[in-house]
């Protein structure tokens, strides 16, 4: 597996969203769900409508069972995800068991390779020259969560890492970098 980077710049993230929306709302949802939850690509591609939708609205939490530990983990589906889910799922006649990222060719989910092409193509169009891949979604989530004040121990758990050092390296965070961390409880 080749090393890829998170998308660090918020303007670039916004440009990616705009570019993906031009192509398809499905592709935009893949990107937004990935960068807002940190869910692995395999888990993203295996999501069904009933995993994220209660029949009328986006669910508040998505539950995924970890294959190794058999533990069920909850992932918060924020308003960004909810807005795009509402738009996406209102555009078709969906069944609860349909794959969320259904291929245009059949009822199966898109492949890992197709997801890579979607993300990589849009990244090139918006001018990202760094190595980008499907892991970029998880890394972008982790990177921005870290700089918004989420404890590294929590990110380590979400990303299934064994050490803090592994998580910091994965996110491309330099331990010596003195960047202020924003903790906004917004009470």
Written account of the structure:
The structure is a single chain. By secondary structure, the chain is mostly helical. About 50% of the residues lie in helices and about 5% in strands. The chain contains nine helices and two strands; from the N terminus they run ααααββααααα. Strands 1-2 form a two-stranded antiparallel sheet. It is globular, with a radius of gyration of 16 Å. The protein starts with 9 loop residues before the first helix and ends in a 16-residue tail after the last helix.
Précis, in short:
With 187 residues, this protein is mostly helical.
How would the blueprint of this fold be written?
Elements: H1 10-23, H2 25-37, H3 41-45, H4 49-52, E1 61-65, E2 72-76, H5 79-89, H6 112-125, H7 135-147, H8 152-158, H9 164-171
Antiparallel strand pairs: 1-2
Helix pairs in contact: 1-2, 2-5, 2-7, 8-9
